[in-house]
Amino acid sequence: MIVRIMGEGQVKLDDSHFVELNKLDDELLEEMEAGDEAAFRRTLGALLDSVRRLGTPLPDDALEPSELILPSADATLEEVREMLSDDGLIPG
Predict the structure, then answer these.
(1) Which of 7, 60, 67, 80 is most buried (CB neighbours < 10 A)?
(2) pLDDT score recorded for residue 21
(3) Could you tell me which of 52, 28, 54, 53 has the C-alpha nearest to residue 41?
(4) What pLDDT sits at residue 61?
(5) 57: CB partners within 8 A, 6+ apart
(6) DSSP strand E in the chain: where?
(7) What is the pLDDT of residues 43-78, one digit of tens each?
(8) Nearest CA to 14 among 46, 48, 56?
(9) Model-level pTM?
(10) What is the pLDDT of residues 7-50, one digit of tens each?
(11) What is the spatial distance between Cα 36 and Cα 92, in angstroms, rounded to a whole number?
């Protein structure tokens, strides 16, 4: 799957990594619902770090369609809330 981190670029992630990423996504959703800004920042950073660590960066000139778009590390709680689906940021 091709994942875009807003403001950074795209990475290719193997589907096998989504179990780990979905756990972080579930935590992020709970923290957002609780309005816990500090925990939200920590978990968003961990989610993005995991995507960077587990994924293979695509070249800057690659024009692959992104199947998933994640917010930048400095996104606000409200900006991320607007990006959410019922499943969180990551479907499934």
Answers:
(1) 80
(2) 92
(3) 28
(4) 86
(5) 9, 10, 11
(6) 2-5, 9-12, 56-57, 68-70
(7) 999 999 999 999 999 998 888 899 989 999 999 988
(8) 56
(9) 0.89
(10) 999 999 999 998 999 999 999 999 988 999 999 999 999 999 99
(11) 23
Tokens found for residue 33: 């619902």
Residue 30, token pair as written in the block: 């709970």
Integer Cα distance of 61 and 41 in angstroms: 30
The helix or strand, by DSSP H or E, that contains position 21, with its residue range, turns out to be helix 18-34
* C-alpha–C-alpha distance, residues 30 and 40, integer Å: 9
CA distances from 85 to 4, 56, 64, 69, 89 (A): 17, 25, 23, 12, 6
For residue 6, give Cα distances in angstroms to 25, 36, 62, 66, 74. Answer: 16, 22, 15, 11, 10
